[in-house]
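Sample 1 of the test manifest.
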Amino acid sequence: GAGVSQSPSNKVTEKGKDVELRCDPISGHTALYWYRQSLGQGLEFLIYFQGNSAPDKSGLPSDRFSAERTGGSVSTLTIQRTQQEDSAVYLCASSLEAQTPSEQFFGPGTRLTVL
Amino acid sequence: DAKTTQPPSMDCAEGRAANLPCNHSTISGNEYVYWYRQIHSQGPQYIIHGLKNNETNEMASLIITEDRKSSTLILPHATLRDTAVYYCIAPNNAGNMLTFGGGTRLMVKP
């Protein structure tokens, strides 16, 4: 079946520009997570959505980062006024629910490079 | 989240069992142990999870000690495609958010 998809797979942008990253979760999954992974580093949580509840934004590094999830499905992560330190792989994951135990299915990621 | 400790790297011969250890001595009674892996340039992949009992699925087996302070992930017949970084985690937050540390870099050699 279809897994989590993300687009674009690669994005190169100039410092100061805004970028939008898209995530299509697995159909029927109510929980959706955004993470980022800098080169050679572990996974850093950014934000998650669970059903119609208010998203948990506790991991967002600054107010330049925001995310939306429309209709309980597709999600968009927006980074405004990008900085070089935003360069990383941005990963999206979905799961049936945002509770333990629940496995998360990850997309292939979007590699963002800020010049 | 309980702190987990894993060796930074391990080698395994192709076809042999790979046994990856994880210490989680501060784990609490309701924290599950999860294993994920990340093959180079791919997103993380769920492998298995457990609470108290040993678990087995089509990918691996998870052996959890009786005191729950450590566990071992077993890949029974490692292949070259199992070369990856393996992460042991024990999330304990309302949203089940994951945080990966260093993990164990498993190199399966022919």
